């Protein structure tokens, strides 16, 4: 089955460019377009896309609020949101991730990265490119814990290995990369990630990464 994609951007020229790229792929189909968040909500309900390629800054309703409604507890379909941001990293991206986005992508990313990101998100994974994540978190370093504050109590529910996995997730590593780093199987990594999400009450890897930084477990610039 082809991955159904909804394009949401207030610039028609950009939507046309994205459509041309995606429709050249046999496993992707663009089912609709929207020019703002309100239109996006209507299109999601009507078209039931698998992935919404979501701009942040739009008239009437921005991408953060649209993401919150698409992925929230009252969601009506399977849609996952992949946020588009500009090269200098939109200040609303962190809010979009908190709202439920499955990741983010630069608007000037190469075509193959856009295609791969949609496939990754449609498959239930998070799109957390390490270089982009690092720049994003460095940008917000002044608003994040310094590392001197006490860690949240619920981190104590994690095993030592689960804490290791959480740190690597926060760095943007995939399951395969984490498995190679820890010398374990991908199945084992998936199990650890699942335990981390359950114990911390998190929805997905994106929320786990944000949590790791906001809690002070991982600091911007740290290896």
TrEMBL record:
<dbReference type="Pfam" id="PF00072">
    <property type="entry name" value="Response_reg"/>
</dbReference>
<feature type="modified residue" description="4-aspartylphosphate">
    <location>
        <position position="55"/>
    </location>
</feature>
<keyword id="KW-0597">Phosphoprotein</keyword>
<protein>
    <submittedName>
        <fullName>Response regulator transcription factor</fullName>
    </submittedName>
</protein>
<dbReference type="InterPro" id="IPR016032">
    <property type="entry name" value="Sig_transdc_resp-reg_C-effctor"/>
</dbReference>
<dbReference type="Pfam" id="PF00196">
    <property type="entry name" value="GerE"/>
</dbReference>
<dbReference type="InterPro" id="IPR058245">
    <property type="entry name" value="NreC/VraR/RcsB-like_REC"/>
</dbReference>
<dbReference type="InterPro" id="IPR000792">
    <property type="entry name" value="Tscrpt_reg_LuxR_C"/>
</dbReference>
<keyword id="KW-0238">DNA-binding</keyword>
<keyword id="KW-0805">Transcription regulation</keyword>
<feature type="domain" description="HTH luxR-type">
    <location>
        <begin position="151"/>
        <end position="216"/>
    </location>
</feature>
<dbReference type="InterPro" id="IPR001789">
    <property type="entry name" value="Sig_transdc_resp-reg_receiver"/>
</dbReference>
<feature type="domain" description="Response regulatory">
    <location>
        <begin position="4"/>
        <end position="122"/>
    </location>
</feature>
<dbReference type="InterPro" id="IPR011006">
    <property type="entry name" value="CheY-like_superfamily"/>
</dbReference>
<keyword id="KW-0804">Transcription</keyword>
<dbReference type="InterPro" id="IPR039420">
    <property type="entry name" value="WalR-like"/>
</dbReference>
């Amino acid at each position: 089955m082809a991955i159904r994609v909804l394009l949401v951007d207030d610039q028609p020229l950009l939507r046309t460019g994205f459509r041309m790229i995606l429709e050249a792929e046999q496993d992707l189909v663009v089912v609709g377009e929207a020019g703002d968040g309100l239109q996006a909500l209507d299109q999601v309900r009507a078209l039931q896309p698998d992935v919404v390629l979501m701009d942040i800054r739009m008239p009437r309703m921005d991408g953060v609020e649209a993401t919150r409604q698409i992925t929230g507890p009252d969601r009506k379909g399977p849609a996952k949101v992949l946020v588009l941001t500009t090269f200098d990293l939109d200040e609303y991206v962190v809010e979009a991730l908190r709202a439920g986005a499955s990741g983010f992508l630069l608007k000037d990313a190469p075509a193959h990265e856009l295609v791969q990101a949609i496939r990754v998100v449609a498959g239930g994974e998070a799109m957390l490119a390490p270089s982009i994540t690092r720049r994003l978190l460095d940008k917000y370093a002044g608003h994040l814990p310094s590392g001197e504050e006490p860690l949240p109590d619920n981190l104590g529910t994690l095993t030592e290995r689960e804490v290791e996995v959480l740190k690597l997730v926060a760095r943007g590593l995939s399951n395969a990369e984490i498995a190679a780093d820890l010398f374990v199987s991908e199945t084992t990594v998936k199990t650890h990630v699942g335990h981390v999400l359950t114990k911390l009450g998190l929805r997905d890897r994106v929320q786990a990464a944000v949590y790791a930084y906001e809690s002070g477990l991982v600091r911007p610039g740290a290896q």
